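Q: Got a minute? One more chain.
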Amino acid sequence: MIRHITFSITVMLAITANALAEEKPLLGTLPEDFTVYAVGTYRGTTPVDIQLDDSAHAVTQVDVVVNKPKQSVVLVLTAYDPVVWRVGRTKKTKIVGILVSGYHGQALIGVKKKTPHAISSYEEKGPFSYFYASDASGRLLEMNDTVKRLVGRDIEHLFNKPTSGVFYVGKQPAKKKAVLYSDDLTIKDYVKPDRPLAGQPALNALVKHEKLRLATKADIAAWTEAASKKYKRFNSQFRVSTRMRVGRTYVVLKKLTLPNGLFGSHSRAFIIPDDVPFPAGPRCHNTFYKMDGTATGPGSRDQ
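A: Always. Here it is, folded:
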């Protein structure tokens, strides 16, 4: 019996050891001598008309040029907003791995597909825990710990200020032609064709299909008048306040499903006529005004 148990334990240990041996590092086998450089920013500067996640945050592009001809470089790229990272390198620069992370969706172009790389964000989960840092904060220390766990080395330097819109890892090349880019990876590799539109683009589509229209001052005034009636017996001059604003308020015209991503500054107000059903979909941070003078949502606190 003891011999049988001992044999079983030995077999289990052997299987576990083999599994660990077969588990490959996230970026594959890195050279013995490499340096980790990071680029951190809140958002990019060039708008990109795509959607990388289900947030309403606008996607922008960040350009990074690596000019470290005497080093093997592991590049760490991180942003809060959804970003397309376009990475270029000088001829003798060797990028041996890239980690891309952030709060919102991230994408990587400019390098060859065979360049070892991994992407993970809070919005679009990947093979490692997401991180984001662009300045002196606890997040930077946490990011460094994660990077060290993934590649076995600390971050050598964090670049967080661009030069003329470009982050240079190393000296700025004298000529733009000295920077090499690959077309292997494209933005299409990161866009999901079946992903529903979110935020303002989705609202624009609902307007186009005549399910919504932008509210006028008269629409807002009509709701205000209806909501004020119950107070006018105390004072005929009373009028309730409202957070509705022209340009950020819509009238619901038909049965519809609201998009995701309408949080914080992206939230909107919706006036719902008596003969129109309440919208389906996520309410997010939106406020809804029914024509009986009632309102629900964060902007309804004054009513």
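A: Residues 67 and 241 are 57 Å apart (CA to CA).
Q: Perfect, thanks.
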